[in-house]
Structures are given as structure tokens and as C-alpha cells.
Amino acid sequence: MADLLASRPEPLARFRELLAGRDPVLLPGCYDALGARLIEQAGFDAVYMTGFGAAASLLGRPDVGLLGLAEMADQARRVVAATDLPVIADADTGYGNPLNVIRTVQIYEQAGVAGLHLEDQVMPKRCGHMEGKVVVSAAEFEAKIGAAVAARRNPDFTIIARTDARAPHGLDQALTRARAAQAAGADVLFVEALESREELEIVASELSDIPLLFNWAEGGKTPPLTLAELTEMGFAMVIMPISTLLVATQAMQAVLAKIKQDGTPVEAVKSMPEFNQFTELVGLEEVTALEDRFSY
Known about the structure:
Blueprint: H1 11-19, E1 25-30, H2 33-41, E2 47-49, H3 51-59, H4 69-81, E3 87-90, H5 98-111, E4 115-119, H6 138-151, E5 158-163, H7 166-169, H8 171-183, E6 188-191, H9 197-206, E7 213-215, H10 227-233, E8 237-240, H11 243-262, H12 275-281, H13 284-293
Parallel strand pairs: 1-2, 1-8, 2-3, 3-4, 4-5, 5-6, 7-8
Helix pairs in contact: 2-4, 4-5, 5-6, 6-8
């Protein structure tokens, strides 16, 4: 857990070690700093900062390109500060052309994330599992990935190339773009919104010489495979972007309905975590100890 004064482990090199391991790296999604703390407390090895969840949390709106670089980088900085785990962050399209991508990579790296993914949608983009996606040219996508690779200061910073070409142009075009991104220097490939197990097997076979990311998009277009199936196919990373967002939303709706019905939380509080449990979870004891240490 992130100590306010302790030296931090080197997240970039740590994530590279995880990525080189035999088993897929599991990255539950968080949309804020509290979620990052909970992921670490649950025993995971890495965190994924979801753009879908960030849009919902910060704006109360869908993932349709409304958040910009400054807002996403600020959220990434807060998430990184809350955990000692490596954080992989959604960077959407890089927020412009290759020059914008250079700035995006440098700002995300300064924010402390271990890596990011960039996609080939036009801006404003939309969630990869929504309808109506449009992608930039293959040449522009390859140029943006090349710019991202050139922009990083630390060679361990992980560049993940995501193509959304499957929906508008078919699987063959998505594979071609993925190969071009690999040639441009991407460390991991992410073929978004595949629609069958057969397509997943084709991607895993055709791109078996580079780490692959599987998006376990809860309720999305891609079949919900088990960890054993994903391991057998050879996926190196599995993100689960919105499980925490969906269950938190459901829980908030339920407690609000109960308070509305009763007029106060008199009954609802019986099923909540205790106040002292929550303050312990968010590190009150550590903060109090620092107050005592530096009292005057």
C-alpha cells in the first residue's frame, strides 16, 4: 500500500517482469484512487485505469471522447499516488495527431503510470464495444504508435497498440493494423471487440510472437472466457475495466432507494462497512502517525 513517505517500488520494470511471466497479468479496472487501493488490498499485481469509468466518474457521462488529456492525466496521477502497484492507463486516441501523442506519452509517464494504450479511432472516440466506431487511416495509426515509442523516456514504459478496426473493416484489417503497430515498436497488441471465440483464436495464433491484451469487457461484444481459456490461448494481459464501476453503481442505487423509502439510513447502515473499518481502509492510522511524528 502506498506509504506517504516510503520510497516507491519501480513500477515500470515491475510491470515488464509481470508481462514476461508464464501467466496472464490480471488488471481489474478502477476509475479513481479509492478503487486502486481496493485492488491492491485484494491482492492483485497491477491496476488498470479505465477511460470508460473515468468518464462516468468525473462527468457522469458515457465514454464518447468527452474527457481530454489534462483530465485523464490528472486522474492517472491520483490513481498512481494511491497504490504501489504498476498502473496501466487508457489514453484513448492520444488526443490528436502524432505530435499530440508525443505529449500524451510524456505527460502520462510523468504521472507515474507504467504504460498506456493508444487506439486508432478518430477523435472524438467512443467505447470500443459501442456501435458507430470510425478509425483513422492505417498510416496515421502506425505513425502515432511510432511517435509514442519515440516519446517515452524510460524504455520500460509499456506502449500498447489498440486497433478498433474489427468493427468497421473486419478482422483481416485489424490483424494488418496490429502487425503494423508491432513493426512501429508497440510492446503489446490489443485487438478490440472481437466477437467470437474463433476470432480470438485466430488473433492469438496470428499474433503469437508478441504479448496480447484481452479486454474482458463486462457485457460487451467479446465472449466471456475463463482465465484457463485465456491462458491456453496465450494472452499476456487481461483487463476487467468496469466490474468495480458496475457493482458500485448498483450498490449506490440500492442504498439510495432504501434511504428514499425510509427517510434516513437507519436500516441501510446495518449492511454498510463500519465507519472505523472504512477509515482504516483509507489509511487514517498512517496519517495519524505522521501527525504525531511531526507535531509541534
